[in-house]
Amino acid sequence: MMKRLQKILSDFGIASRRKAEELIKEGRVTVNGEIAHLGQKADPEKDYIKVDGKLLIRPEPKVYYAFYKPRKVITSLIDPQGRPTIKNFLKGIKFRVYPVGRLDYDSEGLLILTNDGELAYRIMHPSSEIEKTYLVKVDGIIEPETIEKLRKGIKIEGKLAVPVSVNFVKKLKANSWIRITLHEGRKRQIRKMLEKVGHPVIRLIRVSIDGIKLGELKPGQYRALTKEEVEELKKRAGLIKKSQK
């Protein structure tokens, strides 16, 4: 779409329209290798526009997605061993996104995908205390006293791992489902905790991250986060003040 150069420079955040006019008058703007003139129009999608010899590149918009990582899929964009990665499922997303945090190869459920590096860093930092909730199918019928033991914390590799909450969900013929919420996320923490109490994990699904829910997503599907979900994440990460609307 053809637009006046001063508007293009303003849209790209280079300068105000008035200042952009001055840049054009001073001969500091070129279009397809030729010095631009005031009143000239260009198409920012097709023409090569430079200011002081630097090509204008529109910054990618920040995007945020909830993704259901299937089992037997690597939480990575590339795997040297040739195993399936989450990239196989993201072909409909126009921008390069990366996962916030991880889920191991045998686990499934909610991942947040974004190209917002600052938010990703803040969420993954231990000080953010982002709550993550998991539904876990375990071997055997788990007794109330074992649930209580998990609530009080299990020592893993010399350090006590204390969940935010542990709740019984339902009993099957030979297995049980429980719900566990964590602040921290040490590698294979839930699996190690349950192995310690004699109930190895059969299936592990992350169902929410700080209020963002897996919902109706099926393995391999994704959806864009709502504006409200993004704002809540940013508040938790300290990028928006909680009183700010």
Automatic annotation (TrEMBL):
Highest taxon of source = Bacteria
GO biological process annotation, one example:
enzyme-directed rRNA pseudouridine synthesis
EC number(s) per entry: 5.4.99.-
Q: Does the keyword Isomerase apply?
A: yes
- GO (cellular component) term, any one: cytosol
Q: Which CDD domains match?
A: PseudoU_synth_RsuA_like (cd02870), S4 (cd00165)
Q: Which Pfam families match?
A: PseudoU_synth_2, S4
Which keywords does this Swiss-Prot/TrEMBL entry list? Isomerase, RNA-binding
Which GO MF term does the entry hold, naming one?
Answer: RNA binding
Domain called RNA-binding S4: residue spans: 3-66
Concerning its family, UniProt says:
Belongs to the pseudouridine synthase RsuA family.
Instruction: Output this protein's name.
Output: Pseudouridine synthase
